[in-house]
Amino acid sequence: MSYYPASVLNLIKNLSKLPGIGEKTAERLAMHILRTPMKQAQALAQSILELKEKSRLCVRCFALSDAELCAICSNPERDARILCVVEQPAEMIAIEKSGSFQGAYHILQGVLSPMDGIGPENIRIQELLDRVAAEHIREVVLATSTTVEGETTAAYIAERLEAFSINVTRIASGVPIGGDLKYVDQMTLKRAMETRHALRY
């Protein structure tokens, strides 16, 4: 790519460092940015700088925020006595988009993974226990993934929460709506059978 000037090569090089962006995609993006009006390019550059300067973790739930408390933790209409525990901010956003939960969150920033050297002290479990002790929590909903690590993390947290007089629940998992049984993996089918419930009409 030596036929590009240094400024273009530098942008392609930096774009290709982003996850999921290969050299060809980086080249296309660089050409797109080159063709955009100066104001649009400046707005893109400014938004990246603002992200780095302002974005932080909420001091209570560890979600992404531009302030000390995120929009959910600072919303008095949310039921702060119900905590939904998730692995990363992306899972919290997915639940929020569903509109199915009106409580508060606690983001672990990872899962237990002894093979990778990640123990309870490496994720936000102690902070969760401190919140339960201090904030009059009545229910903790464990919404970690159904991977081995996610299940292990949920089981560990449930065990630690036995010391508190609160409800500890686990999100249901099973066959997705619209899913064809012959394409569903065996673990999901097993869980769906184990958590089956009576039909009510």
Keywords:
201 residues, alpha/beta, Helicase, Ruva Protein, domain 3, Dna Topoisomerase Vi A Subunit, Chain: A, domain 2, 2 domains, four-stranded parallel β-sheet, two-stranded antiparallel sheet, globular
Q: What features would you describe in this structure?
A:
The protein has 201 residues and is α/β, with parallel strands linked by helices. It folds into 2 domains: 6-54, RecR Domain 1 (Helicase, Ruva Protein, domain 3); 64-170, 3-Layer(aba) Sandwich (Dna Topoisomerase Vi A Subunit, Chain: A, domain 2), CATH 3.40.1360. It is 41% helix and 12% strand. It contains 7 helices and 6 strands; from the N terminus they run H-H-H-E-E-E-H-E-H-E-H-E-H. It has helices at 6-15, 23-35, 38-54, 89-98, 125-134, 148-160, 186-194, and strands at 56-57, 64-65, 79-86, 103-107, 139-142, 167-170. Strands 4-3-5-6 form a 4-stranded parallel β-sheet. A two-stranded antiparallel ribbon has the order 1-2. Helix 1 crosses helix 2 (23-35). The model has no long low-confidence stretch (mean pLDDT 91).
What fraction of the residues are assigned to beta strands by DSSP? Answer: 5-15%
> Based on DSSP secondary structure assignment, what is the total number of beta strands?
6
CATH-derived architecture of the largest domain: 3-Layer(aba) Sandwich
Shape: globular
Q: Looking across the biggest beta sheet, what order are the strands in? A: 4-3-5-6
Helix/strand/pairing class, anyone? alpha/beta
The total of helices stands at 7
Largest sheet features: 4 strands, parallel
